[in-house]
Target: Tripartite-type tricarboxylate transporter receptor subunit TctC
Amino acid sequence: MLRTLSGTLTAVLAVAAMATASPAEAQTYPDRPIKILLPFSPGGNPDTVARILAQELTKRMGQTVVVDNRAGANGIIATEAVANAPADGYTLLYTTGSHVINPLLYKKLPYDTAKDFVPVSLVGVTRGQVLVANPRLAAKDVQELVALARPAQSNITYGSAGVGNTMHMVAEYFNSKAGTHLVHIPYKGAAPAMNAVIAGEVQVAFLNPVSAIEQVKQGKLKALAVTGSSRIPQLPDVPTVKEAGVSGFEVDGGWQGFLAPANTPPDVVAKLNKTLDDILKSPEMTQRFASMGLDVVGGPPKDMASHLDKETSVYTQIAAAANIQKE
Model:
């Protein structure tokens, strides 16, 4: 009995110590390097943005902040690693829409998307993806693409960053709305998928504007449409998919943001959030990201939590419309 009480008291004291240590941790945090895990390969738009932010965080927090690319399994590998990391603010996840999509695709995940993470900062959103094609594809607009891809045995292929990635989900939603049979070819990240379209390995892809704009301007890709409710300023002559004749199709852009393991001390989360907010509010950074097609958001963690709830609802509807079944 005494041993049981002693064990219980020790546990209570340990919890109390953790609770009282939190403010102190925040005051000294960070006192060693911070690692940002990225569920995608180098070269894609989230990688570019994450590395810019890592450089700025390094300057402002006095410790090195590094980006660790762990691509594969539609982001599950990196996300699981963060879920299992110590909840101390030294391991963060920089992720995108696949985070809320994976629970719609897989019956079992090695983590709980809702319970195993806390939001830190919603970095930005895009106004829609860009439907791009290899310049040699015999389709100069959406209607010509639809005509090529409508036969059941269509050999028109599209690349994505993996099964369940937003690129995949949006393309399947396009198939359901346009009555096409675009064939899915998954890659390990958005950058390899984009390069596959440029090389002609696949014919089309739905790319984030951050990735698409420069390639379109250089003539390496041609833009057929944007998926959002309005055209994007960087490609003013490119119509929306709805304007191009696909009724009922509209998907606004994806998001990028930071998550931390659940139970990360609130003061540490607040310090990270405040530092990121200061970075994002700087005119230089806002303009830099805008030129890449990313609209800065920032704000408190609760705003990111609300956004994730909204995204979950949107992609639940898309998965149902595209008849995507859980594996």
In short: The two ends are 49 Å apart (CA to CA). Residues 2-28 form the longest helix (27 residues).
